[in-house]
Structure formats: C-alpha cells, structure tokens
Amino acid sequence: MINPVISSYYWVLSIIWPGGKGENVFIDDTISAIATAIGEAGIGIVRLSGSEAIEIAAKLFRSASGKKVTELPSRYAAYGHAIETATGNVIDECLLVIMRAPHSYTREDVVEIQCHGGIVPLRRILEQTLINGARLAEPGEFTKRAFLNGRLDLAQAEAVIDIIRAKTDRALRMAVSHLSGSLSERIRTLRQEILLMIAHLEAAIDFPEEDIEELTSQQVKSQVEKVMAEIDGLLATAQTGKILREGLETVIIGKPNVGKSSLLNALLREKRAIVTDIPGTTRDIIEEYINIRGIPLKIIDTAGIRETTDMVERIGVERALALVERADLVLVMLDAAAPLADEDREVLRLLVNRPAIILLNKTDLPIKIDTDEVARLAPGIPQLKISAVQELGLDKLEESIVNMVFSGQVQQSEGSFVSNVRHLDLLRQAKGHLTDVLATISMAMPPDCIVVDLREAWEKLGAITGDTVSEDIIDQIFSQFCIGK
C-alpha cells in the first residue's frame, strides 16, 4: 500500500504546483534581435531563437564552402556571407553558429550571425531575418524563453541582468553565484521543509483511519522556527546585497572650501571637480561611481552648505540637504586646521540617525579643531583624520566604508547575499506567514488552519524562483532587460 504521507505529498504538490518548469514550452514563433550594443565595434551579433531559426538563417546565409545551413552541425562556426534574399546581393561577410535544441541558451534552436559591428550591416541582416519570417524580440525575451523552457529559474534569470549591470568585481561575483543557482538552492531547501510539513499534516487530516504518526504542535513549532531562522539569515544580508547590486549612495557635505571636491578627485584619481580657494566653487551636484574594494560607491559632491544670497548656489545647497535625507552614507568634511564654525555645527546637526563618517581634513596642517566638541555634536559617529590634497588617510576611509557595508558579513560568499528588492519583499512576506503559523499553534487551532499559513509561506518562497509567480510579474521582470538578451 502507498504510504499516505507520500501520497499526500504528491497530492499537495499537484494542487499547489500544477505543472511547473523544466520541459520545453511550445512557442510557435521565431524571434530575432541584435544581441550586441549598437555602435561601432569589431563584431556585432544578430541572434535568432525558435523552431524556424535554422530555416530562416538558411535563406540569408551563403556558406563559402557550399554547405547547406540545415546540414551544419551544432556549435560549428561556418564562414560565408549574409545576403539579401530578394536580390542575392551581399550585405557583409560573417560567421554563422547554430546551437540546436535543447543544448542552447533558450533550449530552442538558436542561430547567431556574427558580422562586422557597424550599425548598417547589423540592421540590414536583422531586417532580412524579419522579412524571412522572424519576429522582432521583446526586451529580455531570449532569457524569458530560457526561463519558460526550464533552462533558468526566475532568480537565475534576474541574475543575468545583474551580471550585465555589475559595476565591480564583487558585484559580478555575487550575480554569477546567483546565476549558478546558489540562492535558488537555499530557497528550494526551505520550500521542501515547508512542503513536508504540509504533506504530513494533510495526510493526518485526510487519512484519519491510517496509523500515521501526527506531528505534534511542538514539532511543527520547532520546524517552523528553524525555517524562520534561515529566512532571518537571508534577510540580514539584504542591505549589503542591495549595495553590491545598486551601489552605495554616498554624499559629501560640509561648509564651502573645506575640501569636498578635493576628496572626490582623490578617490577618483582624476580631476573631476573644479578646486579653487574661492568658497562656493561647487554650486551643483557632481555624481560619479567609484570602486572601493569591490563596493560600488555612487559618490556625490555637493555645494558647500551655508547661508547665501546667490540664487544658483542656494538651489545647490537645497539639493545637498535633500540628498542627505536619502543617502546610504554621509561623509562630513570638517577643516581640521581651523576651529569649528557655526556652519560646521549646522552640518553636524544634520547627522541625527544618519549613517555617517566625519572626516577631519587638512591634517597636514597644524590641527586647531576641537574634536571633543565634534564628538558632543555628533555622538557615536566615527572621526577620521585625512588630507585630501596629500591623499593621506584615504586607506582608513576605504576600510571604514567596507566595515560599515558588510557589518561583520565580510567573510560570507557573495552568493549568500539577497540583492533583489523583489526577493527581499517575498522573504518578508513568507516570514510573516510563518509568524502566523506560530500564532495559530499558540491558540491551539486545528491543523487545517496551520496548513493554510504554511501553504502561503511556501507560495511566497516559490515566487522567488518563479514556481508560483503570476504571468504579469514575469512580464514586468523581463521588460527590464535589453533587447537581444
């Protein structure tokens, strides 16, 4: 006789997950797009995917060896020419590579035509693919097909765009780790643990005549707390993961002529901002990305904060104040070679409940600032002595930023970080449903009620990998991709 728990497991699986990814989805059209950036380059690629990709390529490619495109082996680069189907005129010399299903990125037949990377040959070849029956691909449609055909799950597909947008090596390693399935595997393990609880509880409900050992409330509570602890571990990495993915928005503030622009130039290793002895030189916002030991910093140099009658400078000051409110990190510049001024005190008062580092600049000169007063005005905020002009103390600044970002997690592998806002929200929702399970148990409610919340948590986690996500969400995610990917 079939074990009722096993039977219930598959019954629950069929109800909550009817179907699932893994087998090729039949899509009856063939898509085409330019897969490389538009502009001048040595090589450009036009990509096709679909059931008629090889037949369409055969109509517009003439092999130099005389071999038929339909007879070319998979992953074989054939040299020849792209031609206009109607006239036979040569568009460009090129290479053609076929990747036959299911051993391709989309698990469909894929053809890549590699020509010279000019905008005219690429567009003309693309036009010929459309004339011969292909449809212009939508943004991210190649990766969407890879997802629908089980080549990638949704978390892995989202990692593709993170790889494309990565600004540092560490961000790239995190995205590649997610693409390899490190995060997905952790989510699947959690879902499996929840599903086994559901199956066991359902079996006890549906087969009361069988001698099934029921899970006690304490056993369920213990298992739920274990899953919640795993989710808490993932949630704890979210801020670091978000920073690695999107960058740490860092604002440099201080009174005029304190060295903000000199610091920006020193971190960039180039003269990006104008530096003069005239107060108020910087009137607008200057933004640049800087790589600090693998952490992408979106660093913003602002106008000096002071009272001014100059309308343009006043607008710059107002923008600077607004940026402080939303910044991930505030770098406050003080002139260590001068006593604190009222403008400095006003700046320090902006740091209440803000993540910040105070930089005592110009320490290559005799120090006159009262550091004790600085500590009283901004308690708990670290102070670092630097000289932006002499580039002294910048290594300690970088170390402080790294420690602040990782908050003790620096030894974790990049794949351990949750970097996607959608994933973060779903993890929080799943934890909320598991919290409801504990409340239900504490009120001694029947197993049916426990199963409801367990199932909700299971579905929220499944939305991360795409197993229980709606079509609208899938479309929204892939719309963020570039055309051709």
Folded structure, characterized:
There is one protein chain. The two termini are 50 Å apart. The chain is 45% helix and 16% strand. The protein has a seven-stranded mixed beta sheet with strand order 3-4-5-6-2-1-7, covered by helices on one side. It has a six-stranded mixed beta sheet with strand order 9-10-8-11-12-13, sandwiched between helices. The radius of gyration is 29 Å and the shape is flat. It has 17 helices and 13 strands. Helix 7 packs antiparallel against helix 16, helix 8 runs antiparallel to helix 15 and helix 15 (421-442) packs antiparallel against helix 16. It is of the alpha/beta class and 485 residues long. 40% of the residues are buried. The longest helix is centred in the middle third of the chain and has 25 residues, at 182-206. The protein has three domains: 1-21 and 167-237 and 412-465, Up-down Bundle (Four Helix Bundle (Hemerythrin (Met), subunit A)), CATH 1.20.120.430; 31-152, Probable tRNA modification gtpase trme, domain 1 (Gyrase A, domain 2, 2-Layer Sandwich), CATH 3.30.1360; 254-406, P-loop containing nucleotide triphosphate hydrolases (Rossmann fold, 3-Layer(aba) Sandwich), CATH 3.40.50.
